[in-house]
């Protein structure tokens, strides 16, 4: 059963991509417009909702950071989540580290009864895209995904299943899923 479920998740995850939002491409503005539309279905104030992330995200988008960015999880035109991505050398860790933090899911996942499978697919996509970014965009020896709002059970299963496989060591450290590349010796 796990194999069939894994294949389904891999198929679903493969269509989701983390895309860098910049002031120039206006992607974050598109996300806010889309999320405002979702939010109109709830008896809540979108401006209050976005106040928890808006100022810091705006600073990142308008700043000239070379190692700190905003990425949006896109799924066939739907913006499912966004996260802040930091690439830096961290004391006590080898080489560079990619940290995916401040993960925010679309309002529908926070205000509706969302199935565990859906959150598992989103969690899997964020993890897969974290690994892709650490490999292809921001070469890193270590990647760390902050699991706020994500499915800890699925991500813990990743840690057990993938650790030692594919040249990766995966462990859960508190609310972080930490993946380290195993160097070939």
Characterise this structure.
The protein is of the alpha+beta class and about 180 residues long. The chain has one domain: Aminopeptidase, CATH 3.40.630. Helices cover about 40% and strands about 30% of the residues. A hairpin with a 2-residue loop joins strand 2 and strand 3 (about 80-90). It is globular, with a radius of gyration of 17 Å. The relative contact order is 0.13.
Oligomer: single chain
| Number of spatially distinct domains | 1
Low-confidence stretches: 1-9
SSE string, helix = H, strand = E?
HEHHHEEEHHEHEE
Structural class by SSE content: alpha+beta
Number of helices: 7
Helical content stands at: 40-55%
Shape: globular
Radius of gyration: 17 Å
CATH architecture term: 3-Layer(aba) Sandwich
Strand order of the largest sheet: 1-2-3-4-5-7-6
CATH topology: Aminopeptidase
Question: Summary?
Answer:
With 185 residues, this protein is α+β, with helices and mostly antiparallel strands. 42% of the residues lie in helices and 29% in strands. Strand 3 (78-89) and strand 4 form a beta hairpin.
Labels describing this entry:
Aminopeptidase, 7 helices, 185 residues, alpha+beta, seven-stranded mixed beta sheet, 7 strands
How are the SSEs ordered, and which strands pair?
Blueprint: H1 2-13, E1 16-21, H2 27-39, H3 46-50, H4 54-62, E2 68-75, E3 78-89, E4 96-105, H5 107-111, H6 116-137, E5 142-146, H7 152-162, E6 168-173, E7 176-181
Helix pairs in contact: 1-6
């Amino acid at each position: 059963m796990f194999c069939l479920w894994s294949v389904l998740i891999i198929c679903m995850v493969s269509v989701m991509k983390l895309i860098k939002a910049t002031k120039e491409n206006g992607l974050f503005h598109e996300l806010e417009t889309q999320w405002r539309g979702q939010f109109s279905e709830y008896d809540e104030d979108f401006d209050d909702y976005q106040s928890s992330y808006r100022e810091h995200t705006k600073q990142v988008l308008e700043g000239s950071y070379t190692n700190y960015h905003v990425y949006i999880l896109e799924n066939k035109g739907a913006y499912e989540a966004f996260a802040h991505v930091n690439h830096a050398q961290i004391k006590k860790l080898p080489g560079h580290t990619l940290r995916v933090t401040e993960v925010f899911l679309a309002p529908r996942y926070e205000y509706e009864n969302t199935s565990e499978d859906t959150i598992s697919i989103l969690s899997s996509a964020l993890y897969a895209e974290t690994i892709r970014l650490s490999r292809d965009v921001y070469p890193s020896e270590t990647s760390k995904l902050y699991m706020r709002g994500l499915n800890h059970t699925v991500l813990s299963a990743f840690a057990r299943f993938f650790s030692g496989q594919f040249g990766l060591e995966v462990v859960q450290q508190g609310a972080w899923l930490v993946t380290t590349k195993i160097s070939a010796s």
